[in-house]
Prior knowledge:
The complex is a heterodimer of chains A (328) and B (329).
Chain A: H1 5-12, H2 22-35, H3 37-61, H4 71-77, H5 86-102, H6 105-111, H7 115-119, H8 125-159, H9 165-195, H10 199-228, H11 236-250, H12 254-266, H13 292-323
Chain B: E1 11-22, E2 25-36, E3 40-44, H1 51-58, E4 66-71, H2 80-86, E5 87-90, H3 102-112, H4 117-130, H5 146-159, E6 164-168, H6 176-191, E7 195-199, H7 203-209, E8 212-217, E9 220-225, H8 227-235, E10 239-245, H9 253-258, E11 262-269, E12 272-277, H10 282-291, E13 296-302, H11 306-322
Parallel strand pairs in B: 3-7, 3-8, 5-6, 6-7
Antiparallel strand pairs in B: 1-2, 1-4, 8-9, 10-12, 10-13, 11-12
Helix pairs in contact in B: 3-4, 3-5, 4-5, 8-11
Amino acid sequence: MATTPQATKRKWEREGSPWTGLWAVVAKEMADHLTGVRMRILEILIVLTAIGTVYVAIQNLRTTVGEDPFLFLRLFTTGKDPLPAFVGFLGFLVPLIAIALGFDAVNGEMNRRTLSRVLAQPIYRDALLFGKFLAGLFTLALVLAAIWLLIYGLGLLRLGVPPSGEEVARSLWFLVATVAYGGVWLSLSLLFSIVFRQPATAALSSIAVWLFFTVFWGMIAQLVAQGLQPVRFGLPQEFLSQAQLELGLARISPNTLYGEAVLALLHPTVRALGPVLPIQLQGAILGTPLPLSQSLLLIWPQLTGLIAATLLLFVLGYVLFQRQEIRA
Amino acid sequence: MSSGSGNGEGVVIQTEGLTKRYWDLVAVDHLDLSIHEGEVFGVLGPNGSGKTTTILMLLGLTEPTEGSARVLGFDPVRQPLKVKAHVGYLPDQVGFYDELTARENLSYIAKLNGIPRREAYRRIDESLERMGLADVADRRVGTYSRGMKQRLGLAELLLKRPRVVILDEPTLGLDPEAAREFLHTIEGLKEEGITVLLSSHLLHQVQAVCDRVGLFHRGKMVLEGTVPELARRVLGGAYRIRLEVADSTQDLTEALRRTPGVVSARRVDGNVYELEAGEDVRSEVARAVIEAGAGLLSLEREEPSLDEIYARYFQEVSADGNDTTSNEA
Lengths: 328, 329
């Protein structure tokens, strides 16, 4: 059959909205997440850590009430041996929750033989995948927001001072950064749930990637930086370029990006996230807090980096899912 | 209800040169199929003959490599949502969310179909009632037997009020009683004017409910028609007559063979004979028996069975395939 280019183009255009049925999927998946045993266990875990770390933080902070202008931010960042701060816990609990929310999203449906039945309904695959992603993200946001409120409540009760607007704004941005960080791991586990037929394989692969970035990536970045930019003559430039390369490599890891974002948001006095030369500090009054807008400017690349990684992984999964044969 | 332009004579499913290739494997090879409104069409064929792939292409769940399909006047490649809104599909191994109840499972499907809530509740009750699941509607599907799940699958189809229903191996793994009930339901669908495409291995079931059947082999539809038509083509004599005589002393084979219209005659045992004929020659046969001086006890026409057609066809195909070298003599 001879077809003009226009006709060919029209032939491959789909009719109907890819969002049809999206909210039905989101509602169903969220209901599953929120009532599932898996999520309950993780919720209990995170609530216990929140209460534990914040309680310890409050014990510490009560001695300094009135001296510190960012008392409520300290709730998140103060730890006392042997207990690390709440943000330290979040750094590995959030990936764990995100992976738990996504690792059996697609292959689970396939194994239960529900996928072909659901896709035989008048929806596109787009709606199913995006619905599952959104449901995971909303669930994560919901859990984190609940914990955020819990911490604020504890803080109000035990510290006896109200938080300032600046503190609330900063910790809300911290919440946004945490959800974005979770989004990376959620879309990673969603991707693996498309690639691997077995949910267990998908879960283990996701955890392997997370472990790689948490434990090994820092060392690898250091080794690579030392190899590529060796310090031969002990010149300051050499040290600087090595440090910059190491930092650049380390920033490939979402953990580094999240760590830096949290650092700048919850410690208003942090004014740079890389090596700083003394000349750059001229005229700066050290120890004075930055306004929120300046801190945000500082972490903007980190935040957009996390969101970009989320999108990239999601798009990769989306393409693979569109091409996947749905027959089991 | 929006409807695609009817193709004139009520053709509901039509494919032209529909082809699907996976790398070098041709799963479906230039398939031309047309199914009319209100018809029950049976798709037969060994595993891997392209039945399921064809079904998936009709639903827009797999894209054809070549050729085109029309379902209710819609193109499954470009307008899959419109196709899927009017076509109910029951996959070969139907699965539900085990942790949800039957009602919750159906309500999810209703939402995906965009059925308003109140209407959905009414339809869910109605279809569960009809499939005899009303009593267990609030039990988790995980506790259901295979037959119950299959019925729940049908309830889901009814929920959509489909115009076409596609069933892929629906009776696989059902006990005979459940399978019979299932076939009964298919007959019910037909009475409502719903077009049914049924793929199955269980030939006598297909024969029982289908108006027409298509035989798939290596991605091609090698035979198509009503069961008697296929019998005529594959088995030669379309009419099989079985008769029993009272007197066993004389051999009637010769006399029967000479009767006009009879293709072959065979004495099965003692008093029972089997004839093959090109047309209905029962009265002639009766006369021949009487004239030969024997008493006629019974004379009946045997329906050609799809099992036989199927077996014979694939025997021939495999014989053709194997004998290409030795056939020269």
